[in-house]
Write a structure and sequence with these properties.
The chain is mainly alpha-helical and 397 residues long. 59% of the residues lie in helices and 3% in strands.
């Protein structure tokens, strides 16, 4: 949903780019209303399908965890780590949402990241330095959000507190989100999920890792562990998040434009290549036509010569000699007139079926290339002016 927020922002820019000529700005749909309506639809969609998730969890015999109490649910939680980078966009989608920054000491996280493939089969990071860099980026993003929105929106919780003092930690979190506490809320903590099963003797000490990034990460962790979260929102941090979000949207728009230009160049190259291929094919076809005409002309000239030969005295003598030879030597019978007659008859029949063979030199007109883009009306969803047109009736259709 973080990426969705970025795409929604880019879409709003397009939909409000030309004042009253754009649908969103013409209808005075503000960015806040635009995002909030998408967020409300997502909220209703998830809550409406919660029952299906409940049924699947009941059939999951591999888990020992007791899933959810009875009754309808009005709140849902998504713990995707990458949301650390999208808190600003998520707040635009869900203005009343709250965030919990669950932060763990850096060394334990590095060990877990480097061993995650033991459980999932896939490596989350390529090496130790990338693991430190990932921890730094996510934690810095969450700390900035803490400073931007204050503890009423973003609440920090140390992982060690959740493990060592689970009851007080859960009570604090439930109070933060406005939900009553029950001892049953501690039951999910009895089962660890997404555990990397780090071997006890595993050591994270890759000599190729930049010592500077290790020092920076450990310094940040010490500061977080020893310093309480600020109670007052900071406007400068909020501006930093907004600037980063707008920069991400601009980058997305730039990438989309680059992709469009690249597709355009590829289409142009494809058109040129197809034109060359078509010309080469036409040249080969023209040569074949010329050679066929030459062959037909030679065969046409051969027909009267064969007729003259069959009516000549010499040919009659040859036929008589061949007939005598056939009677004397039955295995060496040879009647040249019959073979020649068969050839001429076959050609005559073929010639009658192809009366236009002498007109093969007519010009060959190339077919229109589908990549030429001349007929804009054939493009799906575009009018002749190049502007997409959508109507209520056509949408229903």
């Amino acid at each position: 949903m973080g990426e969705f927020a970025v795409n929604a922002a880019a879409g709003y820019r397009v939909g409000a780019a030309r004042g009253n000529l754009s649908i969103l700005s013409a209808m005075e749909i503000t960015p806040a209303a635009f995002f909030a309506n998408f967020g409300q639809a997502i909220d209703e969609l998830i809550l409406g399908h919660r029952s299906l998730l409940e049924e699947k969890r009941k059939l999951d015999r591999s888990s020992k965890r007791k899933h959810a109490a009875f009754g309808p649910k009005t709140r849902w939680v998504d713990g995707t780590p990458e949301y650390s980078f999208h808190i600003y966009g998520l707040r635009k989608l869900f203005p009343t949402a709250v965030f919990i920054h669950l932060v763990r000491d850096v060394d334990s996280v590095i060990r877990s990241l480097l061993n995650f493939h033991r459980v999932s089969g896939a490596h989350l990071v390529a090496n130790e330095e990338e693991a430190y860099s990932y921890w730094l980026r996510t934690v810095k993003a969450c700390v900035t959000a803490e400073q931007a929105y204050g503890p009423q929106v973003v609440r920090r919780l140390l992982y060690s507190t959740l493990i060592n003092k689970p009851e007080s930690a859960i009570q604090s979190l439930l109070s933060f989100v406005g939900e009553p506490y029950s001892s049953a809320c501690l039951e999910p903590l009895g089962e660890r999920i997404n555990s990397s099963n780090v071997p006890p003797d595993f050591k994270s000490d890759d000599p190729a890792t930049d010592p500077g990034i290790i020092e920076e990460a450990r310094r940040l962790w010490t500061e977080i562990e020893q310093t309480e979260q600020s109670r007052d929102p900071a406007a400068a941090a909020a501006d930093e998040l907004e600037t980063a979000f707008q920069r991400l949207c601009s980058r997305r728009a730039t990438l989309e434009q680059e992709l469009t230009n690249r597709i355009g160049r590829q289409e142009e190259q494809y058109t040129v290549a197809m034109a060359k291929l078509e010309q080469n094919y036409k040249n080969r076809l023209a040569r074949n036509v010329t050679e066929t005409q030459q062959l037909v002309e030679m065969l046409d000239a051969l027909v009267p010569i064969a007729d003259d030969l069959r009516s000549s005295r010499f040919w009659r003598l040859v036929r008589r000699a061949a007939a005598i030879k056939g009677r004397l030597f039955s295995d060496k019978g040879f009647i040249p007139d019959r073979r020649l007659q068969k050839i001429i008859s076959n050609y005559s029949r073929w010639r009658a079926l192809h009366p236009d063979v002498t007109n093969l030199d007519k010009p060959i007109h190339p077919a229109k290339s589908p990549a030429s883009g001349k007929d804009s009306q054939t493009r799906s969803g575009h009018s002749t002016s190049g502007t997409p047109t959508v109507s209520k009736e056509s949408s229903k259709a």
